[in-house]
Amino acid sequence: MDAPEACPPRAVWQQVLKGRAPGPPLSDCARHLESCLACQAVVEDLTGGNCTWLDIAAELRRPAPPLPSACRRALEEVKKLAPQQSDPDVPPERVARGIGGNSIPESSRMTGRIHIERMMHRSSVAVAGESAAAYALLKLIPTGLAGATGPLPMNLALALDVSGSMYDEDGTGLSRLRRVQDAALGAIQKLRPDDTLAVIGFAHNAQVVLPPTRLAEKGKIEDVIRRIDMFDVDPGGTAMDEGLALALSDVEKHASNGTLSQIVVLTDGETSGEQNCRSLAQRAAQKKIRLTLMGIGTEWNSALIKDLAKLSEGKWYYIDVNEAKEVERIFDQEFETLAAAAFLDVELCIRPMKDVRIKRIREVVPEIREVKLEESAERGLVAKLGTLRHDVSVRCIVDLSLPKRPDGKYVVAHLELTYNAGTGQRESSGQIPLEVSYTSAAHGYVNAEVMKHIDDLQMQAMSETLQKVLESNDAEAAKQVAREMEKKGEQMGQRGKKKTMLAQQVLEELNAKGRVSKKTQLAMADAGRLAELPTETETPAGQKGT
User: At what angle do helices 240-254 and 274-286 cross, to 10 degrees?
Assistant: First the structure.
């Protein structure tokens, strides 16, 4: 009978998690981990409980990618010059990488993973007719290993409006431009030395005032941002399309697989070349370059900005100019999000079973938005979720139509999450079943957590309806929708407080003036797409939801 295998010391597991294996081969570490409860507890403790031992074992078993041809040729030359290996147990590929037998290749280090937790809106469903509507909540939860390979490198461009209206102070004592400059100077402190940033100024024309520059030259970047209104840009107009075109051109030059490429645009006015802007946003999406659009004040074209965010699979912000610190808050929020990015080009593939229909999918956290579903012959339905942070879970509601079934538990769809964790290669969660219990007698109990998100979706739908009727100048219809929002918000309690207050503001303005100010409309649109972040504790990564 074989003697029990000795457990590696805690210090060895620490080195393994850091990407260095001082001793046994990684496959042996994985084999031991899969059979030893004590070591499973040790590694989960070392990761702070944010990662399961199953993830770690899977990473340890992952084979190293083959060496590039140029490296193999160099290895052959090394063999000719030094035919004797100092350690016969070390594969030549690892010798060539200069890592001996006591570390793992850089490309084999553990990368982040995303777990899918799923739950239905009811514990069981009863389908009385041929089909019935159902809702599934999917939580995409990053593990604690996201960032084990280091933060994602960033390739950014900042396009700022420097037109004459940017000198308005709005009663704050500082011009809009000065507030934007200060906010940008603070936000770039969140970037890393190897990140690159280009700066573009636009008004009547546009100019690249700083070509793509590494943040290691931060002093140079800060100087340009401070002097952005001193370059050869005519302040008499707003040609955002020209600024966007220059920003996109610079970012495209430095875009690469595994790098986060993003353009941040800020404007306070109507722009020329709207159709050109839309074409540029579509081109950016095709190149996997996201747009972040910031509208400051109330004179910018909100419909255009929203369109550009949607076309580029990006986002938009409304900045209230009467709040002195609002520009700083928005810039900090956006650049903090960019700095925390860990997963690129995240896609959710849904393969429904026979007679099951997927009607739509909507993200509900951190932002409420419709997610486009594309059909793929090989992959089923594909939802593009974009870039995910390492420290924030994303939640989606899937609307389904379920067919009639006998009592029992059934798999209604298979889910698969694919993404780039900064390695330049696609990772996969593997096939994960979405299960539903059928009980013909009656529906099961309602899942309160799922229904809370459905409430958010209903409130957001009301907000969009209100915006449309306001645009059509139908005051009576607007009052009716605002009353419905007020009632729904009161039912939601504290979670619906802000939206309830805005609905009341709409009613007050309609009753007093017969119209609603642009500022209130923008605030309504801004609040309508945001859901309060959950405060309950997430299910630990790796555990299956109900």
Answer: 20
How does residue 58 score in pLDDT terms, banded at 50, 70 and 90? low
483 pLDDT higher than 90? yes
Cβ of 193: how many Cβ atoms within 10 Å? 9
Tell me how crowded residue 355 is: count the other CB atoms within 10 A of its CB.
Answer: 13
CA 135 from centroid of its chain's CA atoms: 22
- CA dist 295 → 69, 148, 338, 360, 520 (Å): 49, 36, 19, 29, 14
Instruction: State how far the alpha carbon of 453 is from the alpha carbons of 460, 477, 501, in Å.
Output: 11, 26, 20
Residue 367 to residue 294: CA distance in whole angstroms: 16
**21, 22, 23, 25 alpha-carbon torsion, rounded to 10°:** 10
Q: What is the DSSP letter of 159?
A: E
pLDDT digit string, tens, across residues 175-220: 999 999 999 999 999 999 999 999 999 999 999 999 999 999 999 9
Dist. CA 152–CA 278, nearest whole Å? 28
In terms of Cα–Cα distance, which of 118, 123, 121, 124 is closest to 134? 121
Token output for 4: 């029990």
How far, in Å, are 6, 52, 230, 285, 540 from residue 34 at the CA level?
14, 11, 63, 42, 19
Strands of 196-202's sheet in order across: 206-214, 196-202, 154-161, 260-267, 290-296, 315-319
What is the crossing angle of helices 274-286 and 302-311, to 10°? 20
Domains of the chain: 10-103 (no CATH), 114-146+346-444 (2.60.40.3670), 154-339 (3.40.50.410), 449-528 (no CATH)
CB atoms within 10 A of CB 511: 10
Beta carbons of 38 and 9 less than 8 angstroms apart: no
Instruction: Indicate the helix (H) or strand (E) that contains 60.
Output: helix 53-61
Please say whether the dihedral angle defined by the alpha carbons of residues 379, 380, 385 and 388, taken in this order, is positive or negative.
Answer: negative
